[in-house]
Every structure is written in structure tokens, then in C-alpha cells.
Amino acid sequence: MTETHPMVWRDTLATYKTSDGPLFGTNFLANWGDEIWSPQPADEQAAAELHIQLVSRITTQRLGYSDGDEATALESVYKLFDQARNIISKNTGCRHVDALTWHVINTYVRPFTAKWHRLSKRGALDALDATDVFRTELAKVRHILSCFDDLLLEIRDGRKPPPWSADDDRGREAQITADMAKELKWGISETFGGVAKSDAQRINKAELAAVNARREHYALTAKEHAIGLALSGGGIRAATFSLGVLIALARRNVLHQIDYLSTVSGGGYLGSFLTTFLNSPGPSTTAVAPPATIPINAAATTPTPTQSIGLRKDELPFRRSEGEAEALRHIRHYSKYLAAGSVWERVTMTCAQLYGMMLNGLGLCYIAAVAAYIELFLRSVLGVDRFWSPIVFVALAVLALVSVGTPLALRLCRKAQKWTDSMIALPAVVLIALLAWKLLTYLHLVYHQLLPDSGSAIYAVGPASINTVAIITAAVIPLIAAVIVGLFGHLLAPLRLALTVVALLAAPFFFIGMELAAYEWFATSRTGVSIGLLAIATVIYFLGLDINFTSPHRLYRKKLGAAYLIQPAKNAEPGKPFDTDVSLLLSKATEMKRAPYHLINCALNVPASRNPAMQGRLTDFFLFSQAFCGSPLVGYAETADWEKLDPHIDVGTAMAISGGAVAPQMGLSAVGWLRFWLVILNARLSYWIRNPKKESAFAYAPGLFQLVAEMFGSMNENGHFLNVSDGGHIENLGVYELLRRRCKYIVAIDGEQDPKMTFHAFTTLQRLAFIDLGVTIDIDLDDLRLNARGLTRSHFSFCRIGYPASSRDSKPEYGYLLYLKLSLTGNEGEFIRRYRLDEPSFPHQPTADQFFTEAQFEAYRSLGEHVGDKLFLPAIVGDLAKSFDVRIEDWFLATGKSMLDA
């Protein structure tokens, strides 16, 4: 009969291991290894109670990246000391549990709690992305305590527990993996895309060809889904922040996998830089095609080109040579792009702006002069004043007759009802016009009486000079009121209504004053001279004026072009490595097959549109792209057709239009009384573009009619010219067009000015996407809200995008959005923290500040790079954090496992 030896501690404990080695090491086993393994009832009871404490705490439960509070998790681990002490004290004789528990706690738990208790007092756990090390170490402690919990269950039950762990999260991750593995066919839906079916088909065909050509260039595996990158508005602030993020993404070799680049306003600066630079005629390296099948976790291998141009990490413009990449250094040097240039250039810019202001003001004077001349003709030639009283009598009689006869007519003939309103309105309008004519007559008399008697009245001190001052004062008061409302309206809320009413009088006061003055001049001057001057003005304003040329748009575009529209110089010289202000046709934007398909977002201003969908918005989505330009309201035409009608249309012009924030019409932000003064002061960065669907031999340039339309907000979609401006006037994230194309993966970089973190741009996107496209974006933004210190817990959030089903028989489909927000968590580098102390409004300094200093540029750029690096925290993406050749699908999957619920 074989002799049976008793089980010793060494034998039992040998099976309890973690990835770092045995749970009970050599030192412990030297003291306890040869002891007989014989747990007593007290051990069983203590093990049961301690198991309950472990399994109900964060010590053995997964802590999602966005879940829970790190300080609370640390406190939960710390409380194990008291719980273990109480349980062991209560269960006298639990010799096994006593020795095992204090070994685990003192060896593994105490160093963790001692370290992080001290660091938490310093604020190390305030920022979510600053807790990466904490979460990594907590994960190790959880694995150890989970293993120890299995040992407690064996002591309690007398047998080993089933082969599972409380840390097992495989079910949830498997569900997320299965969901994210489902393909999402991209392209504008013919049902939910918000555009005409024929337009959707043509656009999809052209974009599919361009995207596939780029994928072939980079030897990317064919796939059904699309990947989009959106750069938001926010002027040079957004462009510089986005630049930093892209530098971090380029280091991980993900940029060349982007299919669509959608930009708006300031994000268009950087997007246009990439599109222009990547279309340089310089060398590029085409990757060798990968095998027919590639493992899901493997990235396509690419050769290492030398000084080649492309979006791989070792290609220009992101490839570093000595220090910073040279192209990015050029952008840094032009961070004060509006102030760059010689003194003479600044003088010419100032004179050009004054010239535009003069033409705009004289244009309104010209209209007033024409009105005055017509009035003079009616009074002096036709003698309308002689017939005023009879006409008034007739109008009153007709109005009385119609008012009395209408009820009788309705009784006799119900069909007459549709005519009754017009019959009443017609004599009423005539009567009002006659009263206005008489009022104008009195104004002429008052104006004539107030005129000084002689040309030397400027030196007079009598009533004439006083009356002149009174006239000027009456004209200036509305203007002063407008300025006060614009600058201090938020401080003078009780007076705002009164000041606004006075400000509204500015335009009619100005126009009536000009008309009275012109009438007086025509009445006292030679008719031939008057007609000659009007004829000259007519030629200028109807044949010679181009309000796109006289607006500051072309100067703005030129300055942006010098800073961002660059290519390696064809004939490089020392100190001049780049050609600047390069003109690249939109229709050639992906000709070299290196750049993502660029969607440049603008706003089509149609405040006078009769389309019901525009009544609540006043604007429509206008898009510039390589194949097609247009909007859902006016339809889409081939980009080449737009370019033929306007030779100035290119990437630079589209960039400047998309960033033209200051304009008379700014979507729902437009102020009626302010439009007039913005036109007079030539604050017009919007652009009038020829409508290719409205052919006309005479509409070769926007002129006086379009200027007046801007002044009074009468633009619509039916004219020969369309008014387009900053895309931020309708949607400032640039994500909308990516949703229209049903992109599966979207990275959105939000650099808008949002100091209170109200997420105006994002919530606007949610509203418009649901109304127009049926797309839902359910996101939790709590980690991006400000705490008491004015900081956020995280820089980004991750969520699903719900697309409507592609057919009635199918289920809704999902995409995924990684949303990056311009924010501070408090764990940034010392330079950024110091800059914040010097500039408390950082990182949300006003968008109007377009004159960045070097320190200011570097603060936003380095913050962007910091945020980009945080996207690859081990706590989020696991082992993928070690890779610098990341496949976007793997990156999103790892992020989804960390940040999504099942």
C-alpha cells in the first residue's frame, strides 16, 4: 500500500501565479513552505468574509478608462487594511488566512497605497489622462488580488475555484469587437444623404475613384468603410492646435490611412497646407502592394523613402530632419501672417481697404443720387405735386369703397375672397406712398432752411453754423448708438433695446441724408453736369465694379497663402526653401494621389430664401471639393465648371472663403442693423461666386446689386451669384460632411473658442445631423467639463455614431467618433503651465487674435501634440501604445474596448 504524504503549503501555493511570477515567493516559502496545509473552520470563515470584501471592491473589478474616480479607487484599496484587520481579529485561529493575507497586503498593496496616497495629495489624480501610471499599477494589483481571491475560495470550499476570474472582461470586449468588425459601406446615402439622388450618385462615383487611387498609392488594403479627419474652425488657434495633434498622429504612422480630410474656417488653414504641399511635383515613394490578406492586427509595411513627400511618418512634411520639420517651421515663422510683410505692403493693404470702403460708401450715395434724380424728374418735369391732392382723394375713396363693399361682395360671390385682400392693400399702399412723398417734401423744406447761407459758413458763429452742427449730430447719433451696442451691449442690458432701436435708424438716416443732399445739388446745378456724373457712376458701378476685388478677401487670401500654401521650391535658395502662395486648382487637389480627399466647408448665405428649410437657418452647407462644389439647396456642379466661370477659384480661395468669419451675413449670428455698417466699413470676407446653373453673358462680376443685397440681407439661391462665407456660420466642427458620407471612423479635433466648455459647435452638429441626416451621436462629455480649478479630467471622448439603416429590411449601422477638445487637465508640461500663468485666457484666447507670438504658437502646438500623445496611453490602447506603426482600425478597436459600454 502506497504511503500518502500530507500536503504542505509549498505544494498548494505553487499553482497561484501571475504574469509577473509566483504570488508567494522564495522568502515566504522559506518560512512557511514546509508547513502542513490544513485550513481550520476559522480559516474558512475568514476566507469567506475576505472574499466578499475583495469581490465587491475595485480591487478585483475592472475600472474602465472613463469610469469611476481614481481617488475613490485608491481609497477602496486602502480600506483593505482595516477590513483585513477586523476579519482576522474576529476569526481567532485563522492561521492560514492570517499569514497569507498580510504577506499579500504588505508585499503588493502597501507599496501601491503608500506611493499614490502621497501623490494624490499633490493633485496627481485630478486629470484623467494623468492617471495612466496609476491605472497601470492598479491593474497589476487587481491581477494579484484576483489571484489571491481564488486562493481564498479554495480555502473556503476545500477545492479550487472554476477557471475564471472576477477580472474577466472578455464578454464585454468580445461584444465590442464583434460590433466594430461589422463593415459600414461608405458614401452619400440616396435616401438619407440630404442631397438629390443624381447628385449623390455622381459624387460617390468621383470620390470613390479618388479615395481608391490614394489607397493604391499607399498600398492600403481594400476596405468597404471610410476614415475621416475633421479640423474645426477657430482661426490660427485651431490650426496650430490641430497641427500639434497631427504631429503626434504622424509619429504613429496613421495619417496616410485617412480617406477624407474635412476642414472648416481655421482648420482649413492646416488642411489647405497639407493638400497643397502633398501635391508638390517632388518625389514620392509608392509602397509595394501588401499580400492579398493581412492579419487584422498587422499594419501594412512601407519602405523608407528619403526626402519623399507623403503622409507616412518618414515623409515630408512631417519628417524631421534637424529638429523641427522644415515645412512646419515655416508655418511657425508666419504665425503673425496678417502682420507679415514690408512696410510698403502694409501701406498698400491699408489703402486697398480704404479704397473698398470709399467705393462702398459712394455706391450707396450713387443709389441715393439716382433716387434724387428720379424725384427731381417727377417734381419738376411731371409736376407730381400738382396731382398729389386729387390722387390722395381718389385713393381714400377707393379704400373706403372697397372696405364697405368687400363684405357684400363676399356674400354674393365666395370666389371673390382671393381678390379682396389685394383690393384693400392696393389703395392702402398707394396712400402710404403718397404720405411718404409728402413727408419727403417737408424734409426738403427743413433741409433747405437749415442750409448755411454762404460758403463761408464754416467760419460763422450764427444760426447757420448751429444748424449745420445739428444736422451732423442727428446723423451721427445712430452710428454712435450702433457702436455702443456692438461694444458694450452685454454691459448695458437695460439700455440695449433703446440703443438698438436708435442704431436701426442709422441706415435710413444715412440714405435719406444723402438723397436730400443729392436732390439739393441737382436742383441748383447744371443738368448736363448732373447727367454726366451719373453716367460715369453708372459705368463704374455696373461695368467696372467687382466687389470681390474691393473686399479684403483677396488680401486675406494672399496672407494665408504666404503662410500655408507652400511647396518645396523649384529653384531653392538659401533661406527660401519653399515656393509660397502656390495656386492649386481644386480639380487637381488629389492629382498626386498623396492627399486625403479634401472637403472644404463653407456657408451659403440665403437669408431671403423662400425655402422653408432655410427659414430657421438662413444658411446652407456649401462644399468645395475636387470633383463637385455646391450645396443641397442649389445642387452640385462639377468643380471644373465653377473654375471656368471664376479663374480665382482654387484651394487658396476656398480656404479664405471658409475662414471668412467677418461678413455682413453670418448665419443665425447676423445682426440686421450691423449688416449696413459692415458693408460700409468693407468688413466683408465673404465671397460672391458665379452660379454655373445660371448662365448669363452679362453677369461676369458681382457688383452694386450684390453689394446692396449684402447690406440689406436679401441674398437667396436664385441669383447669378451666390454669397458664401465661413463654414463656421453653420457648422464649426467640419464633421457634418463626414457623417453625410457615412464614415465609419472619424477623428474630430475641436479648437473653437469655448472657455466655458459649453460645446456649442458639438451640440449644433448633433442637432443638424439628426434633423438632416437621421444620424445620432450619443456622447458623454462630463470628462471634458470644467472643474472648480478651471480644468478638465480628459482631453477627449469616444462614442458611437448611429447611422440610419441603409434599407428598410436592415438594422441601424454604427460608426465611431473620437472627439478631441482644446482643453487643459493640469498635467501638461512646464512650458504650457507657465504660459497659462502668464495668459489666463489660454487655451481659449479670442479667435480675433490672429497675430500669434512665437510663445503663443508653441503653446498651442505643444498642447496639441500633448493631447495627440495621450490618445495612445497604455491605459486606453494597451500594448498598441508601444507601436509606432499603428493601424487605425486597431487603434479605434482598442480605444472602444476601454471607453465604450457593451
Question: Could you characterize the architecture of this molecule?
Answer:
The protein is α/β, with parallel strands linked by helices and 902 residues long. The chain folds into three domains: 9-168, no CATH class; 197-279 and 555-569 and 577-710 and 724-899, 3-Layer(aba) Sandwich (Cytosolic phospholipase A2 catalytic domain), CATH 3.40.1090; 347-374 and 427-545, no CATH class. It contains 31 helices and 16 strands. The strands form four sheets. Strands 3, 4, 7, 8, 11, 12, 13, 14, 15 and 16 form a ten-stranded mixed beta sheet that branches. Strand 5 and strand 6 form a beta hairpin. Helix 4 (70-78) runs antiparallel to helix 6, helix 10 (235-251) packs across helix 11 and helix 14 packs antiparallel against helix 15 (417-450). It starts with 8 loop residues before the first helix and ends with a helix. The model is unreliable at 287-306 and 454-468 (pLDDT under 50).
Assembly level: single chain
Q: Do you know the CATH topology of the largest domain?
A: Cytosolic phospholipase A2 catalytic domain
The share of residues in extended strands comes to: 5-15%
Rounded Rg: 36 Å
The structural domain count equals: 3
**Average pLDDT over all residues:** 83
Query: Please, how many helices?
Result: 31
Report, as a whole number of angstroms, the end-to-end distance.
57 Å
Largest sheet: 10 strands, mixed
